[in-house]
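If you are new to this repository, start here. Below is one unmodified record pulled from the training split, so you can see the exact layout before writing a loader.
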Amino acid sequence: MESGDLDADAGLITENFIANVPGPPEPLVGREVRLAEMKKAFPDLKINVQDIFGTGDKVTVLAHSEGTHQGTFQ
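And here is the target side for that same chain:
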């Protein structure tokens, strides 16, 4: 996402991706993870992946995000 190539970023996410994130009442499903919305709201967004682990078809990512909130998000 930091590169700004949102098409390449979306290509790294499987079509049946489910993201359980704080804020929205329901998980985000599929490649629609609001990448463009996030980049517009946080133009200097940095995501630091601290750990990735999984079992079977489930994966958990522990990440720290930081950026300057400059637009509408959620």
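Two things worth knowing about this chain: The two ends are 18 Å apart (CA to CA). The beta strands are 18-19, 28-29, 46-55, 58-66.
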